[in-house]
Amino acid sequence: MIPKWGLFAISALFLISVSPAFAQHHSGAIAPPVDFDGLKVAISTILSPEDYSYEEDKTANLSVRFFDSETNVNIKSVTYRIQIFHESTLVANEYYFDEDGKLDVKIKPTTGCPEKELWKCTQYNGEKHAIAGAYYARGDSLPTIQGPVFDRSGQYNIKVSIVGATNPRTMTTTDLLFETFLSIPQNEIFLIKDASAQEIPISVKSYNGDISNFSFDESSEKISYEIPNDHKSGHIHSSDVKQVISIKKEFSSFKQGHHIDVLVNGIQLQDSSFDVDVSVPGKNIIRINTAHDEFIMASGDNDSPDATKIELVSGERIEFNHLDFAYDNGYSASVMWDSESFTSKEISFVFSFFDQSNSLVNDILFAYSITDESGSEVWSNIGTNESYLGILAPHGIAQESITIPADGNYKIKLILTGQNSGNFESFMISDSSFSILSQNQKLEKEDVAIPAWVKSNAGWWADGQIDDGSFVEGMQFLIREGFMSVSG
Question: What's the pTM value of the predicted model, to 2 decimals?
Answer without folding.
Answer: 0.74
